Amino acid sequence: MSDDLLSDYAAGGFGGALQPGKRPALLLVDVVMAYLTPDCGLYSPRFEAALASCERLTAAARASGTPVVFTNVSYGAGGANGGLFFQKVPALEAFLEGSPLGAFPPSLQPEPQDVIVTKQYASAFFGTSLASTLTAMGVDTLLITGFSTSGCVRASALDALQSGFVPLVVADACGDRDARPHDSNLFDLSKKYAEVLSEDQAIALLR
């Protein structure tokens, strides 16, 4: 980002700092095969590097006893439970119930102690029990990763903030189909709604 853009936001009063709480959890947003399968419309090679980062973060979280939360997306026949979102984004047909594109990748599978949240909309919080589950676990901070940066990651980070959880978005572990929405959304999140961390910073926090 250019110096004039950064100085403009700083002068406008944006970009205050949020401090991590005492009990983090790792949130893996929609790290599923639709984004990793070349003949699927949602695919981009950019997701593969983010997957590798998610794998390393998950290993670090499990080693430290940090809760791990996976989200996926599933729609009934015709996508009626996806409402206007399903109408707006025809690519969401990849997540009709039973589609292999909605499965978690072989290299990043939930374990018995992990939480799985199935959703129909962009945010991991909207229409789900995620906030209640995190509260019951004593979680106050979320390390947020997954696909895509400008879509479900952004929506989940915003709702984490609005639900009282400190959102820490791990840039290396998020993917988008193009660098431009990825970078612009990370910038906007960092100035208004979340802290944006590198993978190394996130792993240091987990340790």
Explain what you see.
This protein is an alpha/beta fold and 207 residues long. The protein contains 7 helices and 6 strands. A 6-stranded parallel sheet has the order 3-2-1-4-5-6, with helices on both faces. The longest helix has 19 residues, at 46-64.
Main beta sheet:
6 strands, parallel
Quick one: CATH superfamily? Isochorismatase-like
H and E order: HEHEHEHEHEHEH
List the total number of helices.
Answer: 7
Task: Count up the domains.
Answer: 1
Low-confidence stretches: none
Which structural class do you get from the secondary structure elements? alpha/beta
Strand order of the largest sheet: 3-2-1-4-5-6
Q: Would you identify the CATH architecture? A: 3-Layer(aba) Sandwich
Strand content: 15-25%
Mean pLDDT: 96
How far apart the termini lie comes to 30 Å
Indicate the CATH class: Alpha Beta
What is the molecular shape?
globular
Nearest-angstrom radius of gyration?
16 Å
**Number of extended strands:** 6
**Helical residue percent band:** 25-40%
User: Might you state the CATH topology name?
Assistant: Rossmann fold
Short recap of the structure:
This protein has helices at 3-11, 46-64, 83-88, 130-136, 149-162, 179-192, 199-206; strands at 24-29, 68-73, 115-119, 141-147, 166-175, 195-197.
